[in-house]
Amino acid sequence: MHLVIFDLETTGFSPRLHEIIQIAAVRLRHGAVLPAERFATFVRPQSAVPAHITEITGISNRDVRLAPEPASCLAAFSRFVGDATLVAHNGRRFDIPFLRESSNRHGLRLREVSFFDSMELSRRLWAREPSHSLDAVTDRLGLSTENLRRHDARGDVQLLASAVVSMWQRLGAAPDLCPVPLEVGHLPA
DNA sequence: GCTAGGCAGGAACCCCTCCTCCCCT
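The joint structure predicted for all components is written out below.
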């Protein structure tokens, strides 16, 4: 199966009120990360990056000041995705609505793309565990976060890719058979 | 340690609405 694992950093939680400031993604084919197939860009927001977001993500106004505009970043990301299935952690509630809202706001025509939420893999594996956050998942899998910048999309997406590969294997699913139902999201056409 | 928005899922109830929790930055 052809997957694109992605992560967004934004200026807040609301797709209507806040903006994307970073997109990162890695490609997986047949259950393995393709090291040469990575996507990462800062995105120039219309408003300033709030101080508390810089504190969390390490992303400052200096990082995004000269970055490409949202419309071209979203279009480039969509080209990178191609016909792959998207994967994001809590993507159903956060990343996927953010992509749709941001594309709409910038007047981009949309196309449908399949996705699944990696939290569903965790729920399948550890139904009784109270937390399925990325931190909880990586702890349970014993994944190292050394040399990774957490809350930078490039670091988070690398961690999430390892987590997805590991959870997929633990579920005993064949590399080309998704163990959770696919859903529909939107990207620029 | 609080805040921000929206969702899913449950409670209470029979079809909606309301509530609370989780998770993302």
